[in-house]
Amino acid sequence: MAELRKRIAALSSVPFVTFSWLAALAILTTLLEPAAALAHASLIRSKPAQGAVLAAPPPIIILEFNEAVAPLALTLVAPDRSTRPLQATADGSRLVVSNPDLEAHGTYLVSLRVVSEDGHPVVGTIAFSIGAPSASPGAVTGSNPAALHWWIWATRWVLYLCFSFAVGGAFFEACLKNTAPASWLSRSWAPLGLTLLAGSAYLQGLDELGLPVSASPQLASFILALNGGYGISIASGAAAFLLAWLKSMRRHGDGGGWIGLTALLAAAAAFSSTGHAGSAEPRWLARAAIFIHSGSSMFWVGSLPVLLRRCLGAHRKEVGVLRVFSRLIPLPLAALIVSGVVAVSLQVPELSSLWPSTYGLILTIKLLFVMTLLALACVNRFWLTAPAIRGDERARLALRRSVAAEVVLVVAIFAAVAGWRFAEPPRAALESQPMRLRTHLHSSSAMAQLEITIRSAGTGSASISVVDQSRREMTVKELGLQLSNLEQGIEPLKFRATPAAGRGWMVNGIPFVRSGRWAVTVDILISDFKSVHLDGFVTVPELGL
């Protein structure tokens, strides 16, 4: 037993865990580099489709996302490179621009900036042409506020600590009898959390407006951020911190337990009311899982400083505190694990999509730290707690080191979790993945395998491989593709294929703007005197536009 405790003390030493923590931060440094898409809603399709060439100006512009969004700013770049704002109407997951007034021929760009249901800004650009593409289309300029993202990450990181130590600690203190006065450090977490909440709202507003952190202070940033679910989250979090501060100022008296419980519930509501995890379907299950997961983690993490201060300190040895913690922790720990599994399963519908994504990398880092944390917790409960309660000084010192290591691990976990603000969950990536349709065409002299890929914004490409009846690749001089949907009023669209880099032929820029049954014809020119025509059909599922 003595040898086991020595090994535990070595593994749970602060330098060892601090090294792991710094390694996590080094990995997060790469995760927080500026990226093209840092939000959790995705543009699924558009009308006109990305890259479409239209014969006449469109009467409306429709942008469809994988979840509901609200418009922040839409800008139209005309063929002459002039810009003007567009007014869009939100209709669930769609944004509709009526009467865009597009008269000139050439290429148009629509730059969009919207906010998704999880409170995160979404940026993007679609391009389409009227008549013919411009020789040199305009460009959309914008800021990439990398410094702002670092500030957002750091603020969220420390906010997680404040919620846990202030609110979770207040609730655990409320579970104890003869509560001692809180230390000055314990009382400082709630005011710090309130300050960071205000800063978080301001940074959120800057991000939604597309402004850098060096922008002049403006009230519009606060007002914009407090709209919708993010405002509810800020209000719930502020209530939780105020209640936790009130609890920390009470030494004795009735009502302390209810204050601590209400603070914990308000903090859990703050986490479940916004964020990408709570916007997964079914929504009620996702938000319930986040509510339980955040509440359980705050209780566990908030208990650790109380244990160090009141039970495992150099001068205070209130073993009753350790006894209460040991009796209470199994239920929230089980709830933490189960709710975490549920939340991840909703975000990761397919394990193959987890890696190598930023979301999957952060999840892997978190799980490694959590498994280490759970291992320390099991050792504490089954090998160190009982001897420490009986008065074994060596067990108490080993437990003190182990709990201190748990705190350091928690700091590292929160650093990783804060990076999820910039990681698209796999469910969103799957929803915006290209749609692939395959069909086989054949005649007495040739066969063709046709694969059509419809991308997120409604454009498509086709890959065609041609073989003879012996399934040997045919030598083809030219190859053409025709697509028509007469039921939808679409006459044959004719494309000339180009040889692919490896084998086969490619056609790009196919505008799939209608679902339904499309007639397909592959025209194969074998020589100047011989050609083959292969006919068939392909069914395009509902595109939503």
From TrEMBL:
> Which GO biological process annotations does it have?
copper ion transport; response to copper ion
* Entry keyword set: Cell membrane, Copper, Membrane, Metal-binding, Plasmid, Signal, Transmembrane, Transmembrane helix
- Report the locations given in the UniProt record: Cell membrane
**InterPro entries from the UniProt entry:** CopC/D, CopC_dom, Cu-R_CopD_dom, Cu-Rt/internalin_Ig-like, Ig_E-set
Name where it mostly resides.
membrane
Q: Where in this chain does the record put each CopC domain?
A: 40-130
Transmembrane annotation, as ranges: 150-172, 184-203, 223-246, 258-278, 284-308, 328-348, 360-383, 403-423
Q: Which GO terms describe its cellular component?
A: periplasmic space; plasma membrane
Tell me which residues make up the Copper resistance protein D domain: 321-420
**Membrane topology summary:** Multi-pass membrane protein
Annotated protein name in UniProt: Copper resistance CopD superfamily protein
Lineage per the UniProt record: Bacteria, Pseudomonadati, Pseudomonadota, Alphaproteobacteria, Hyphomicrobiales
